[in-house]
Write a structure and sequence with these properties.
single chain, alpha/beta, Copper Amine Oxidase, Chain A, domain 1, Aminopeptidase, 2 domains, five-stranded antiparallel β-sheet, 25% strand, globular, binds zinc ion
């Protein structure tokens, strides 16, 4: 079924600005911050009163397995000796901390990159990490809370990155030759967008170990457009999980002076068959209405994501690179992915400045950073607002 909470934009109104979304749900914030404040005030008092005993890493991992609701989930620990920081995983949830310089020091435990708890921090003794009892208790409480919230908290569970073209389909090819990787050659869209997509995938995987980051191709192959959207549409999702689709392309124009980036989304007047009629046999009469509502949601979300990406491009590439704006067109991959979807055109293959950005280490890093920032901002708005829609 479709669940629409009251943040849903299911009426035909003007698109609200991104900031309108989180504000629509004040209770969620009050509740969340109240919880954090209560923990901040009382936890140090409670923990300070207890005698401090401690466990080794192995004992801590065993203790985590007994967390309420954690049955069958993987328990893992990663340690960064340079930053003296630790990362616990319990299934898709994770909690990070910086080690204390001495026993009985309090500090922060950050859960799922979002909620803050205070606790007596782990410290090192004779080269081994020691975990105070009170830290483990806080860690288990924090994980149990986030497991409790799984059923209701809406999140982006998967990100599909779609490098355009590939294999027998080179996409756009520049008319002239450019110095690329120390060699004079034509610029080929399929190679440029694959390189940017791979880098983006790596950054997203590091930023969100709990999300599935998928690519429609990771080599010089040619999945058909139907195969690409099938990959995206067949990702299994829970009730509270959503997915986004980002297709990456490069542009071509006859005028060599034309340059800049642009983002495309699907116009709202295009009707998609989003819901599978076979699953909704009982509610065939309301299916068109449900489809309509979903279409509206996905359009709004695609516009928000597109604008976030354009803003991040502006900040990262600077004002000298033209922002060609957000555009609406009925692209196949955008139309047939049943989720918020955008198509990003990085730049123009026949413009020497755009080529310099798309084929040099410095430029590739900037595109990767800009795409990451834009996607991260959208996900932040989506997840903080509890999502706009949940679909099953
Ligand atoms: Zn293309």
């Amino acid at each position: 079924m479709i669940k629409h909470d009251h943040t849903s934009h299911n009426k035909k109104t003007n698109t609200p600005p991104p900031s309108a979304c989180p504000i629509n749900q004040p209770e969620r914030y009050v509740k969340k911050y109240l919880r954090t404040i209560i923990l901040l005030i009382f936890l140090p008092l409670i923990t300070a009163a207890l005698p401090l005993s401690a466990l080794t890493l192995d004992e801590t991992l065993a203790a985590l397995e007994t967390t309420r609701g954690a049955e069958g989930r993987r328990v893992e620990f990663r340690w960064d000796p340079f930053f003296q920081s630790g990362l616990f995983f319990l299934g898709d949830h994770y909690a990070s901390f910086f080690a204390a310089a001495a026993p009985e020091e309090s500090g922060f435990l950050l859960l799922d990159g979002r909620d803050i708890f205070t606790a007596h921090l782990p410290y090192t003794e004779n080269g081994a990490l020691i975990f105070p009892d009170t830290f483990i208790a806080s860690l288990k409480d924090a994980f149990a809370l986030s497991i409790d919230e799984e059923a209701t908290r809406l999140r982006i569970a998967a990100i599909i990155i779609d490098p355009g073209h590939g294999g027998k389909d080179p996409g756009a090819v520049s008319a002239g030759e450019f110095m690329i990787n120390g060699k004079s050659q034509k610029a080929v869209e399929k190679d440029i967008v694959l390189e940017v997509s791979k880098r983006l995938s790596d950054v997203l995987k590091k930023a969100w170990p709990g999300k599935r980051i998928l690519m429609t191709r990771d080599g010089d192959t040619f999945p058909s457009l139907a195969e690409r959207t099938t990959i995206a549409n067949s990702v299994p999702l829970r009730d509270n999980e959503a997915i986004i689709y980002i297709s990456i392309h490069a542009n071509k124009a006859f005028n060599h002076n034309t340059r800049g980036y642009e983002v495309w989304y699907l116009p709202s007047d295009f009707r998609r068959e989003l819901l599978d009629p076979s699953k909704y046999a009982d509610s065939a009469d309301i299916l068109p209405i449900l489809n309509d509502m979903l279409q509206e949601e996905f359009t709004t979300e695609s516009i928000l994501m597109g604008n976030s990406i354009l803003k991040a491009f502006g900040e990262t590439l600077g004002q000298s690179v033209p922002n060609r704006g957000l555009k609406a067109q009925d692209w196949y991959v955008v139309r047939n992915s049943r989720m918020p979807a955008v198509l990003v055109e990085l730049g123009f293959l026949d413009n020497k400045d755009d080529i310099a950005l798309m084929t040099t280490e410095n430029g590739l890093q900037k595109f990767t950073e800009a795409l990451y920032k834009g996607i991260a901002e959208f996900i932040g708005v989506f997840e903080r607002s509890g999502g706009f829609t949940a679909v099953r």
